[in-house]
Amino acid sequence: MDMEGRALRRADWAARHALARVRHGPYSTDMVSIADYREKLFDILLLMSSWEYRDLAQVATHPMPLRAAQHVKSAEQVPRFNNSQMDGFVVHPNDPEVVAGKPVPLLPMAAAGHNPVPLTPGFAMPIMTGAKIPDWNGAAFDDDECDLCVVPVEETVAGFDDLTHVTFTPQATFESGRFVRYRGSDIDYDEELCAVGDHLTPARLGSLASVGLTQIAVFKPLRVLVVSTGDEVCQPGLRPGAAQIYDSNTSAAVAALSAAGAHVVGTLHAPDHPDLLLDAVRSWQADDTRRADVVVSMGGISMGAREVIRLASELEVQQGVENWYGGAQSPRLPNSGMEFCRLPMQPGGPQAVGQLAEVPWVALPGNPVSTLVSIEVLLRTSLFGARPRNRMNVTVRTPGGDPLSSPMGKTQMRFARLDADGSAQLAWSNSSHLLHRQVEATLLMIIPEDVTVIEDGDTFEALAL
């Protein structure tokens, strides 16, 4: 579209938008609980999820644990055979020739990876860690209901230096099954190794490999297009106008989303013009090599007159754009593809989810701390399936020991650093524009919604970042 046509289109949209605001009044935004909003994001995840088979070696090199897309049970036992837990000598604990305290003749060594000869009465066998325990080739002793055992090198007189005999010290212990790793003691037949949705952590990948698995079905990481918005935002490297600030959100959001397991395919910036926003995203999506599964945007969802995500949603309603989003529809825009919500959370209260430009869309607030809190608290596990953070109880210290306020009815999220004494120092202000104050944060403190005063020495739950 040429510049003149675009200008006419904008003018036409602006006239219709002004008329709509007169008819319908200001936007209405419903309050939604944090838990319910996470469920909305999880529903989006289910709609977008796709899977593929990958080699375990490829899964192991992924920077974040992928999630299994299949249920796996073992067709093997691990260990596959009884083996030695340490270097030593394998004997029968009830063999009178062995426990008599005199030199015991040796059979050939049982080395790891080699099948040993059977153990016979009156003999000991040198054995290495991980080597297979030999079969017993002899009659049962009178009180024999026991297994072979391994006596460690430290309980012998000369260790492996004597190649023909071993003499055990008086402190040597002959106990059935001592230092033997039994077959199937780690994984048994038909044991569950992973379920759909489980994170393929290093230990789980090792378990899968230990039963001979070479491939597994995994959910593909969501491909994300990150969109910053606002006439007031200038990209780093350009000269900002007198009333502009540099875009800090994009870099911070890309890092946080990538750490959550997203595959960020690119970034865009859109000014406060809904048609330009929609055109830019549709143009991006037209290229199959870079197509995103979901757009994550920052800004444009509050209650102002130029909130570009809201305006783009209204523009699509006026254009009759069909949408698939099945969330609760706003009375303000009953045919909208986007659902605008307010969460009882500070920062990060305004949120939106649904569809714009024919793409699944998650819209976050524009202040940088609000963006990071939203990704951490809402998107990280619900949308990208990342592993939950470890939770811990932490005592807080307030500036000068003075009390701090917290909003009634809202869960307040505060970045903080865990100090050496196990406490966390809080700052006076929790303003959502103070991004640099958070650079050394190792915790996200969770102040419950029923707390209005934070006293020095109070204890709250925190997420370990």
TrEMBL record:
Reaction equation(s) it catalyzes: adenylyl-molybdopterin + molybdate = Mo-molybdopterin + AMP + H(+)
Cofactor list: Mg(2+)
Pathway participation: Cofactor biosynthesis; molybdopterin biosynthesis
EC id: 2.10.1.1
Keywords per UniProt: Magnesium, Metal-binding, Molybdenum, Molybdenum cofactor biosynthesis, Transferase
CDD domains membership: MoeA
Spans through the membrane: none
Protein's GO biological process: Mo-molybdopterin cofactor biosynthetic process
Pfam families in the cross-refs: MoCF_biosynth (PF00994), MoeA_N (PF03453)
GO molecular function (one): molybdopterin molybdotransferase activity
Function: Catalyzes the insertion of molybdate into adenylated molybdopterin with the concomitant release of AMP.
Name of protein: Molybdopterin molybdenumtransferase
